[in-house]
Specification:
globular; three-stranded antiparallel sheet; 196 residues; mainly alpha; 5 strands; two-stranded parallel sheet
């Protein structure tokens, strides 16, 4: 009971829009089996709640013309593209069915290249941000993809290290969208994002 009470209090103090790095330790405890079944359920239910909130924001993605490049969700040797082949409900059903906790992997440099190429063909400047560089290889893969373009094209691809996870990234993007709406250039938006 003490552990559950502490865990509920800890989770209630977390801001899903800016999860602390300490939260990663909680996830490690869950994944490694150190927490008991009740603690595991408590953490997973809270994450599920946060993810539903995030995934329900498709209207925000559409409104601001954001492009979402999915990560990969790995259950053992089975790999799924997030949001395309895997959703929150399917992920939790797979955990319950198999007892395997998923791992994620970054979008590949090729995924980034295809996405950037498509956007460059639409003659837009690209501002990309995703999971912070200290937490994932996602940004590194974006840099690798960017390096495959001409200098002129590279000048239209701006990469920003969010230094953050999930909802924190979303808030940063909403701020960037507000800068775009008042007429800031891509370069000015990137500078503002890096100041936040």
């Amino acid at each position: 009971d003490t552990a559950i009470n502490w865990l509920n209090k800890y989770l209630s103090l977390q801001n899903p829009t800016n999860l602390s790095k300490d939260f990663v330790n909680i996830l490690d405890l869950v994944a490694s089996g150190i927490f008991g079944d009740e603690e595991k359920r408590t953490v997973l239910n809270k994450i599920k709640e946060w993810q539903r909130d995030l995934n329900s924001n498709q209207e925000i993605i559409d409104k601001h013309d954001f492009k979402v490049l999915p990560l990969y969700v790995n259950f053992g040797d089975k790999v799924y593209k997030d949001r395309e082949e895997m959703n929150v409900d399917k992920m939790y059903a797979t955990i319950e069915e198999t007892g395997i906790y998923p791992k994620t992997s970054a979008a590949s440099p090729d995924d980034f290249y295809k996405c950037f190429k498509e956007l460059l063909e639409d003659d837009v400047e690209i501002i990309y941000t995703g999971i912070g560089s200290t937490l994932s290889s996602t940004l590194q893969n974006a840099h690798i993809a960017r390096s495959e373009f001409t200098e002129e094209e590279q000048a239209r691809i701006h990469l920003v290290d969010s230094l953050n996870l999930s909802t924190g990234i979303g808030l940063l993007l909403l701020k960037a969208a507000s800068f775009r709406e008042v007429g800031y250039s891509a370069t000015e938006i990137v500078k503002k994002m890096e100041e936040i």
